[in-house]
């Protein structure tokens, strides 16, 4: 099974978007460098960010998101973002009418079933879980192996929390990666498996 990673860009006060679901400057680091991150020509980062992010992105086999993100992006027009092979969507509702049943999106009820489906699809590749409500639920279920965050030097004040509405403490190991990019700090923590 591949590693399950909770991931997002985040403000220093712990938000992945403002109250209206806008990321504001959280993604500015993805376009302020001179090294192309992918073939789109849109994403350009510092060399330090590229050296950290590109190998990680190349290992992602499946992304798990909530229905809210899926609907906000219009299902990425049926094409998984970032070249990922599959997207597993945690939802209690069926796909919208007219949705292409051949698109590599899998609508699953509940986070445990979503992670199981994602791991089956990913094989030994990474299962990435989008931070926010669903990410917090996956963490609370004890299914996250590591937390990755791209910390951006901005304070949003309020909004959508990185860990969603998690209400119990969860210990992480000391950060084993800390890389300074241009206007971003890339961090990685392993999730501690023993109780607090």
UniProtKB/TrEMBL annotation:
InterPro entries: DHFR-like_dom_sf (IPR024072), RibDG_C (IPR002734). This is Deaminase. GO terms for molecular function: 5-amino-6-(5-phosphoribosylamino)uracil reductase activity. Residues 111-167 form the Bacterial bifunctional deaminase-reductase C-terminal domain. GO terms for biological process: riboflavin biosynthetic process.
